[in-house]
Amino acid sequence: MNDVRRNDGDDGLSGAYSLDALSAEEKERFELALASSDELRAEAAGFADTAALLGGLDAVTPPPSLKADIFAKIQGLPQLAPQGDDASNVSSESAPVVEPVAEPAPRAPGRAESEAKRRWFRSPGAVLGLAAASVAAIAGSIVGVNWPGPTGWGAQHELTSIQAAADATTFTSEVAGGGEVTVLWSAELGRAAVMVEGMPQPADGQTYELWFIDDSGAVPAGTFEPGDDGSTWRVLEGENSGSPAIGVTVEPEGGSPAPTTDPIVVVQT
């Protein structure tokens, strides 16, 4: 029996085939090879069994500290200088002239070397496919669909930091008109966030506004509108320097410098 895989270069596609990650052309070519090779069928079956096993594993929720650590490491990375025309316009007088050194012509790789390189990059098809899926999931979890904005990268970082704080505490209250608000705050960080569920959309031209409330009055802390499912979250703007309560009012779109309506919920912290 001829081993079509060895002749047509289909070695290494078994993993991608088991994950349905081949193009139509690759899939057709691979299935032709599959019909002609016992070894290839056994390999593909092994990858399929592994993919099924991995797909049946229970998801593990990482601790909040993991996300905070990732953000901290990313923020600590140095910024590279922009590479543009300025970088290339360096005076030739500031550096000695170096005569170019002739380099030997690159050696053409032999058949064995080419085959080894091809296998190195293509053999772990299943591993690469699963890794790509993991990266996509992590990227979606960490970065979110909005890079800037109230639920973007910076806000997610702040929320994660509050969640990971040693003194993080939550308080939940029901909202007049439906839904509930949960306040997450850390006295150590002086930061707070809210998570809302089941809240109706505000009327046209209106929005919900958050407030830090103490004996001296109410300080605006940002606005929000729940999603179609009535839920969303916000990190409150400013620091919660010992405010005993956080409130929500209905205000004109864009928010108000001071409350214009009675609060629909006040969460005592």
TrEMBL record:
The chain crosses the membrane at residues 126-147. Keywords: Cell membrane, Membrane, Transcription, Transcription regulation, Transmembrane, Transmembrane helix. Gene3D superfamilies: Anti-sigma factor, zinc-finger domain. GO terms for biological process: regulation of translation. It is found in: Cell membrane; Membrane. GO terms for cellular component: plasma membrane. Residues 87-109 have a biased composition (Low complexity). It is a single-pass membrane protein. It comes from the Bacteria. This is Regulator of SigK. It comes from Agromyces atrinae.
